[in-house]
Write a structure and sequence with these properties.
Blueprint lengths: L7 H6 L21 H33 L2 H4 L6 E7 L2 E7 L5 E7 L9 E7 L3 H14 L10 E7 L8 E7 L6 E2 L5 E6 L2 E7 L7 E2 L7 E4 L8 H10 L3 E5 L2 E6 L2 E7 L5
Parallel strand pairs: 11-12
Antiparallel strand pairs: 1-2, 2-3, 3-4, 5-6, 6-8, 7-10, 8-9, 12-13, 13-14
Helix pairs in contact: 2-5
Amino acid sequence: MKRIAWIAMLAACMATPAWSGETPAEIPVPKELSPEQEAAAIRFAETTGMAMYRHDQAASVATDAALKLREFREDKRVRGWITQERDGQIVVTFLDATPAALYRIPVPANGVAGDVVVLESPMPLSAYESGAAAARANALKAPFQACSESYNSLVMPAAGAGGDDWVVYLLPATTRNDIVPIGGTYRIETNASGITGMRPFTRSCIALQMPADAQGLMITHLLDAVPTEAHVFWSLWADKPLYVSTPGGVWAVERGTIRRVERMPGEG
């Protein structure tokens, strides 16, 4: 299922702030990477992009399962969700404004949502869930240039960091199946003190056209020397190869992997 802006209250509780970050002219041209740095950047993009997609799909199928319940559809308390990888599956927890847990849905590796656990009363969150919920709340307050009326969020622990460090990805939502809304995708880093870092993955609200017979997609990306986790995620989301032209060459992003298909003139 493509990303659907299913929960109106998420858009309502998340105001569209004015952009106060760098202008395109102020964003530096990426430095050329050594072979070791390039390989590490590609591994990070592949691993992280795949994790983003798995958590996003878990949230999507869990939402579909929850929406089959009239109780959930009519529940005005729901303010969003967080995900957690646990025992080989991803548990999707829907939250109220407290935040506290209202519903939990396990999604195993086969991608099929399990039974919806309806909690009799709002349940306090675990330490992990509390940290993820706080990171999500901080990220939604960040000043960024919104490219959609509503956004979905993915919250994951920061790799190799302490327990208070989180990464939140803000992803534009769409109800259309013929576009890939890559513009307006952000990564926001947080800890117990608040936001510690933020980056856009595009300079504009670009949306890639995706007709039904498209064999692949292409985008020019000047912010990084190699494709990023956002390119891996959106390629998986679209289920199409994504060709990314960077200062380092042209790359094919397909099925969660990145490979160079052409070097720029003058490169070794």
